[in-house]
Amino acid sequence: MIIICFTWNRGKCSSHAGANKSADQQLEYKPEGPLVLCKFLPKEFIECEEPIDHKGNKTAKEETGFGCVKFGGSRYEDVEKTKVSCTVLPDIECFGPRSFFREGVPCIKYSDHYFATTLLYSILLGFLGMDRFCLGQTGTAVGKLLTLGGMGVWWIVDVILLVTNSLQPEDGSNWNPYV
């Protein structure tokens, strides 16, 4: 390239060197450019791992630096948050590393517990303990079945507990939002 510069016009050589410099600058992120930083992509464009369940072991969480000690919670303040490893989907273009940690992911797991279904069971078949069976609380469900809903009192109390969100699934999972 040096030989070409000496034989060629100096103005063209300096402009060619400027082009190489601009190619190097493309490795820097330009916020006004078309590419978004990979870590700012919405969840539809990335695949994230499930939060790690430490099952109440706080020392394991402190060693790894992330994960969940407990899952669930009915209020925003009660839900623990963690970071998870995410990877950008193959056909999505973005700037920066394609694998990264996403902060603030809630420690929530869903199972087959639907609030609307459980409430209907509680209203219609609560005297037989069907709502408690549905929630995985087999011991109290059998007691409710044998006493016919505590002669109606336990039946009404369970409907109120469900509506006030005091009666939840036994496994600690949250209500599934989609029926």
Structure description:
By secondary structure, the chain is an alpha+beta fold. Among the domains are: 46-106, no CATH class; 115-164, no CATH class. It is built from eight helices and three strands. It has a three-stranded antiparallel beta sheet with strand order 1-2-3, with no helix packed on it. Helix 4 (115-125) runs antiparallel to helix 8.
Short account of what is shown:
By secondary structure, the protein is of the alpha+beta class. It contains 8 helices and 3 strands, in the order ααβαββααααα. The protein has helices at residues 2-7, 10-25, 58-64, 115-125, 130-135, 138-146, 148-151, 153-163; strands at 46-48, 81-88, 99-106.
Estimated helix fraction: 25-40%
Number of strands: 3
How does the overall form come out from the CA principal axes? elongated
Rg value = 29 Å
How many helices does DSSP assign? 8
Strand-and-helix sequence, N→C? HHEHEEHHHHH
Strand content: 5-15%
User: Biggest sheet: strands side by side, in what order?
Assistant: 1-2-3
Q: State the major sheet.
A: 3 strands, antiparallel
What topology emerges from the helices and strands here?
Layout: H1 2-7, H2 10-25, E1 46-48, H3 58-64, E2 81-88, E3 99-106, H4 115-125, H5 130-135, H6 138-146, H7 148-151, H8 153-163
Antiparallel strand pairs: 1-2, 2-3
Organism: Ooceraea biroi
Keywords: Glycoprotein, Membrane, Signal, Transmembrane, Transmembrane helix
Family: Belongs to the TM2 family.
